Task: inverse folding
């Protein structure tokens, strides 16, 4: 008597052998079915004891887009070496700038070339000069040869260290997959000898099956949730944005309301209200992105007068001002905000939503812009988690307790405080957290209690504690990133962005 089995299982049984293991791909080719279908059939046959599966992890290497670019145009360090040789740096050190110019390297390629140059023995770099090792031979560059080998599908011929190096440079991507090989078991052979026949099975319910009533008689294939399927990476919300949303939910949960306001604003709101002297170094063109647009005219006149008075004369009986220049024109000039404390000023002054009576809590999670030097922890723009609490009798304990409560909700329990100086808060504290990978303490924020010189012109006579925390630094503590450029910008790591889950 012959056994009835689903069609795909019969095809696999008839193709598989008891002596030669066949992979899923081979079975798929031989039976003319999709690998996913074969995988499903094979699992069912294994559960019925008719075949045995052996699993092996196999890794394949392929070039990334960047790797492909360097394979075609030569590695940046090789291009640098060739330019250095042409400039005579094999005999006498040549000026760095000139060699880089001649190499045609641009943007991040320059850093890449510099950081690999000495490591690979192409020469030395220092004091603005570069030398070219006379005996170095770019023709026998192991990494360049490895790029060719990987492109030709011959990654096995590349030694492990070189492959690791290329992977860590992001030039080669290694992917792992499970290869399953299938053999017939004794029971499988016996069943084949007794005879199997294909039962009609359907794998989906169609409108035709429903209207004809045929669905009553057909046999449905079972779902196999273990079957391999193509990996589809669709669009998703960026993890930075997801974390920003999570921070907003957390702060709303702690009783805060959200502030909003302009990215480009009058210096008055960004700096003057904060008792930042107009000749403060952060207000020079070095740090500030000034905009070439007409000045802002609609500032609240009395507030402008009170702020000017605080700058000139200080506040209170024994107060003192800065004795430095203050001009209204300077206050009206427009720049990209270097912090979102400009929003706090708009809200605390009553400008944004009218006068506020204590107690109040406000926050924003918004972009700020600074003319910093790009490095692993600095970008030209980042997200600041701004916040403040207005109430009678606040103390530093309230400030610290708020941070502990906030960071605890992200699993961060080791927050440390260091006394700090801000022109607008007294006392002031920098916050530090421990990086989960490097163990280093990294700065995660800045905070303090607003000074009377800030509060009095705003017309506030209770306490206000406030802070600006860096969202990207929070992300580093949560997920262990070491370089902020992995997370956004042109050098970001797409794989990491696809795989990282932001959990609530
Ligand atoms: N504006 C500060 C943060 C801060 C806000 C409010 C009070 C104290 C500090 C910064 O950008 O670093």
Result:
């Amino acid at each position: 008597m012959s056994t009835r089995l689903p069609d795909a299982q019969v095809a696999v049984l008839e193709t598989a052998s008891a002596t030669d293991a066949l992979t899923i791909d081979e079975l798929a080719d031989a039976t003319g079915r999709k690998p996913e279908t074969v995988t499903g059939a094979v699992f069912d046959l294994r559960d019925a004891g008719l075949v045995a599966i052996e699993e092996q992890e196999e890794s394949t290497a392929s070039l990334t887009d960047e790797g492909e670019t360097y394979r075609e145009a030569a590695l940046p360090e090789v291009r640098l070496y060739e330019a250095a040789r042409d400039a005579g740096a094999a005999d006498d050190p040549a000026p760095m700038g000139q060699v880089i110019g001649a190499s045609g390297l641009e943007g991040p390629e320059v850093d890449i070339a510099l950081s690999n140059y000495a490591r690979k023995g192409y020469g030395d770099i220092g004091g603005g000069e570069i030398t070219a090792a006379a005996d170095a031979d770019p023709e026998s560059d192991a990494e360049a040869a490895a790029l060719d080998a990987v492109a030709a599908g011959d990654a096995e011929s590349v030694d492990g260290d070189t492959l690791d190096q290329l992977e860590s440079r992001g030039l080669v991507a290694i992917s792992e997959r499970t290869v399953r090989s299938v053999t017939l078991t004794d029971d499988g052979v016996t069943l084949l000898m007794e005879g199997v026949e294909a039962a009609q099975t359907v794998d989906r319910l169609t409108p035709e099956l429903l209207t004809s009533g045929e669905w009553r008689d057909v046999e449905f294939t079972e779902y196999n949730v273990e079957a391999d399927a193509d990996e589809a990476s669709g669009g998703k919300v960026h993890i930075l944005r997801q974390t920003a949303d999570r921070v907003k939910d957390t702060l709303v949960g702690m009783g805060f309301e959200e502030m909003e306001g302009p990215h480009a604003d009058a210096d008055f709101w960004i700096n003057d209200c904060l008792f930042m002297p107009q000749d403060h170094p952060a207000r020079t063109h070095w740090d500030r992105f000034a905009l070439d647009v007409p000045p802002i005219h609609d500032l609240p006149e009395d507030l402008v007068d009170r702020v000017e008075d605080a700058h000139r004369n200080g506040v209170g009986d024994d107060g003192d001002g800065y004795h430095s220049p203050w001009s209204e024109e300077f206050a009206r000039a427009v720049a990209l905000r270097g912090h979102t404390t400009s929003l706090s000023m708009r809200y605390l002054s009553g400008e944004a939503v009218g006068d506020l009576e204590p107690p109040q809590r406000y926050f924003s999670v918004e972009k700020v812009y600074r003319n910093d030097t790009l490095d692993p922890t600095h970008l030209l723009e980042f997200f600041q988690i701004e916040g403040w609490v207005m109430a009678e009798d606040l103390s530093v304990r309230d400030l610290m307790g708020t941070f502990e409560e906030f960071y605890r909700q992200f699993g961060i329990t080791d927050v440390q405080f260091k006394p700090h100086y801000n022109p607008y808060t007294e006392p002031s504290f920098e916050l530090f957290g421990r990086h989960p990978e490097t163990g280093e303490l990294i700065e995660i924020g800045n905070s303090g209690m607003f000074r009377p010189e800030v509060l009095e012109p705003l017309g506030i006579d209770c306490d206000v504690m406030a802070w600006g925390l860096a969202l990207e630094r929070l992300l580093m503590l949560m997920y262990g990133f070491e370089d902020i450029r992995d997370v956004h910008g042109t050098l970001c790591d797409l794989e990491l962005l696809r795989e990282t889950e932001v959990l609530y």
Summary: The chain has 20 helices and 19 strands. Residues 339, 341, 422, 425, 446-448, 466-468 surround phenylalanine (CB under 6 Å). Residues 3-61+176-220 form a domain with the Arc Repressor Mutant, subunit A fold (CATH 1.10.10.10). The chain has a mean pLDDT of 92.
